[in-house]
Amino acid sequence: PEQRRDLANDPRNLQAVDGPTNSKKSDSDAASWLPPNKGYRCTYVSRQIDVKALYRLWVTQAEKDAMSQVLHSC
Fold first, then answer.
1. What is the pLDDT of residues 2-56, one digit of tens each?
2. Structural domain boundaries enclosing 51
3. Dihedral (C-alpha) 44, 63, 51, 35: value to the nearest 10 degrees?
4. Euclidean distance between CA atoms 52 and 18, whole angstroms
5. What residues have CB less than 8 Å from 63, skipping those under 6 apart?
6. Measured distance CA(11)–CA(46) in Å, rounded
7. Which of 50, 41, 37 is nearest to 69 (CA)?
8. pTM reported for the whole predicted model
9. Has residue 58 been placed in a domain?
10. DSSP string, the chain
């Protein structure tokens, strides 16, 4: 429970976005959603990797592939 609370309140895991963007993202990972602002995708993916490493969260192969593709374009 403490780790869930910490993750939910971690500023690295929180993004200020408008309502429609938040609805589109929902609980999607990088394999199924990336920020519409392509210039922010490198930062977004890097933050996701930091958060996942910090909280020892798993990554699906599809998510890893999507993250790698974004990072190769940075």
1. 999 999 999 988 888 888 887 887 778 899 999 999 999 999 999 999 999 999 9
2. 2-9+29-72
3. 20
4. 24
5. 29, 30, 31
6. 14
7. 41
8. 0.84
9. yes
10. -HHHHHHHH-GGG-----HHHHHHHTT--TTT---S-GGGHHHHHHHHHHHHHHTT----HHHHHHHHHHHHT-
**Does residue 17 belong to any structural domain of this protein?**
no
Is the separation of the CB atoms in 2 and 8 below 8 Å? no
- As a whole number of angstroms, the distance between CA 74 and CA 61 comes to 20
Q: How far is CA 62 from CA 1, 12, 43, in A?
A: 28, 22, 19
Position 14 in a domain = no
> What is the biggest distance separating any 2 CA atoms in the chain, rounded to whole angstroms?
37
**Token pair in block for residue 33:** 């959603």
Tally of structural domains, the chain = 1
Residue 48 placed within a domain: yes
